[in-house]
């Protein structure tokens, strides 16, 4: 049996009369790469903030890595990694200083930090850049470093918010190789993206329209269900159907 490390039931967030996320129900499993798709304003970021313990839901239930989103937000934060859409490392620190800093934040011992720093720099091929300021790295390298730091403490889940925005296709593919490696080690990857071709890389995807999950399945099954050749077509059909229903 697969273990569900993310469980939500009718998870809802209201801002006054506006419903940003409406009764979200889903399960995500250990080692799964789960795509969380939707247009800008669909409610993806609001939902992710609730799952990360950064925003309290208005109603509904959810557990993340076994911890309740209402009562155990600090425990949730210790068991997840997070990479925001905007670059989240310190540009005025070197590559090595960033790795050591975040290792300390995650509570790793000095020995663990030293060992993992060396391994990470070698893995990313940054031996010549280890003592250079992060501000001097190309965007693609910054993104890969940011992801690697987010999983430095071996979290159960890593949340990625539009992680490949603005990078070239080759770097995007290299970044996804890092995601595959993490998933093979048992890390659950919860990723939002506006690149519909990247949905094909996920084990399963959900598609949000106006705060609601309108579809959830494997890319293969969704394309079959909607008689579509690509996830772009699936997304277009769902968005068009939502507009007709208004």
UniProtKB/TrEMBL annotation:
Pfam entry (one): ABC_tran
Keywords, ordered alphabetically: ATP-binding, Nucleotide-binding
Record-linked InterPro entries: AAA+_ATPase (IPR003593), ABC_transporter-like_ATP-bd (IPR003439), P-loop_NTPase (IPR027417)
Coiled coil: none
Domain ABC transporter: 6-235
Gene Ontology molecular function: ATP binding
PANTHER family per record: ABC TRANSPORTER G FAMILY MEMBER 20 ISOFORM X1, ATP-BINDING CASSETTE, SUB-FAMILY H, MEMBER 1
Protein name stated in the entry: ABC transporter ATP-binding protein
Organism the protein comes from: Ohtaekwangia kribbensis
